Amino acid sequence: MVCDMAGTVINEGGLVYKTLYNTLKNNSVPVKDTDINNWHGLQKAEVISSMVNKYLSGPTLNPDSKTVKKLNQIKSHCYDEFEENLKEAYFGEHSKIELIDPNLPNFFNRLRFNGVKIALNTGYNRTLQRDIINHLQMEDYIDDFISSEDVKMGRPAPYMIHRLMERHDIMNVKYVAKVGDTRNDMLEGKNAGCGITIGVLTGASSASKLLDADLVVDKITNIDMIIEDGFFL
Length: 233
What we know:
By secondary structure, the chain is an alpha/beta fold. The chain is globular.
């Protein structure tokens, strides 16, 4: 079972999107509130790049022009600042991040006892992902984790799921479940060919935004049914 992190297994109140929005604003990128709806589940570097291109680039530019170089510098600066701001928000003195449900460790370990591998994937970079996992002591009840930084493309591309399958010798993608709180999570599962995609309502999206899901539940620990094709939940 491949689970998204923020909004799915971690309760952070949309902190990542607020931090991303504020970072772009602070760097004179005039993003709008409505832009945030398109960021859910995407690699954060990809979001920054697309927003800088959208709002700061003019007509088609020569790739060697000074303007393009300047845009790349802005993107790099925004991403570095975003990382620092998010680390402070996640791990600083006033941090409030926590597991989505205190029963999550028991839920995951029950699945693992029944032969289900538990993996986490994310649009964060690998260093931040590891820091979050360590902060919440999640390695005690998961089997693996992967970042979009580890593959060619993040969600909705299927590569993180397929890389995890390779690591754990899982031959048939129909025996993989994808769980997440965004439409891009659901599309990732569909593109990978997963046996089931499960949407949760604890994060960024409402049920109406998770129409691509095979199943929608209030939170991940409410998946308490038998799923066909080998899943015992």
